[in-house]
Design goal:
Helix content: under 10%
Number of helices: 0
CATH topology: Immunoglobulin-like
Structural class: mainly beta
CATH superfamily: C2 domain
Distance between the termini: 10 Å
Number of domains: 1
CATH architecture: Sandwich
Length: 115
């Protein structure tokens, strides 16, 4: 079993004119923030995440989704962070987001550690 600690989420460029209202999902479940529906984040801001996730198969990549909360319409799926972990890998890492929303300007980095 593989466990990783998601440590920080950094916004390089937000998607909306003002701030993005973001939340993270893993395996279809919201994992962050633990209180409230979302965290408002703007360009150059960083938030502590401090969430542990685990994967039964070390060969299977761990994929965390970044969503933007919308009050009046469906939430926007901004992108994914994919973490591939080898059996002998250890340490601290960062993963850039792969965009899922066509035409999005969003750019985020997720920081994580293997436990």
């Amino acid at each position: 079993m593989t466990k990783i600690l998601l440590t920080k989420l950094q916004c390089i460029v937000n998607d909306e004119i003002d701030e993005d209202e973001v939340f993270l999902k893993y395996r279809g479940e919201k994992i962050w923030p633990d209180s409230g529906l979302y965290k408002g984040i703007d360009t150059s801001e960083t938030f502590d995440v401090n969430v542990t996730i685990e994967n039964e198969s070390p060969e299977e990549p761990m994929v965390v989704e970044l969503w933007d909360f919308d009050f009046l319409s469906a939430n926007d799926f901004l992108g994914t962070f994919t973490m591939k972990i080898g059996s002998d890998t250890e340490g601290s890492f960062s993963t850039s987001m792969a965009l899922k929303e066509e035409g999005s300007t969003a750019s985020y980095i997720l920081y994580w550690e293997i436990l």
